[in-house]
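Sequence, structure tokens quoted for completeness.
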Amino acid sequence: MQDAVQPPASRTVGPVPVPDPLTFLAGTWTTERTMLDRAGSATGTFTGTTTFTPDGGGLRWDEEGTACWSSYRGPAFRSYRVDVEDARVVVTFPDGRVLCRLDLGRGHARDEHPCSPDTYRVDFTVTRPGSIEYSWDVTGPAKDLLLTTTLTRRA
């Protein structure tokens, strides 16, 4: 009898439905990102930590780590806010502007964010109970990027 073959950790298995996104996201995650500038063929990486911290009925989303992009290698960070509105996750910038809305009830969601002159399209999938994969496809006259991220829950 053959042993069952387990898929690699980075391979998408889900989507895994998420009925309570704030509880699911809360905690600390390892972050791995690849960055591709399709216009200039430049590639880069970001490795670090993403923390979702309870804050006033929602979550504060903080990301920090090291970016390697073109000639830059050094610290990088960003913050967002996560709330739930009509069963959807609403991710906002610190100034309150909406970045995206994601219905994770089925474990997979897509949204689009116009940021003149470019358009940001997100594809977000919960691949396992402790793993999320999402990508931002950024197109327009100023940018042509593909940013692909894997979050893995820390024990």
Remarks:
- The helical segments are 21-25.
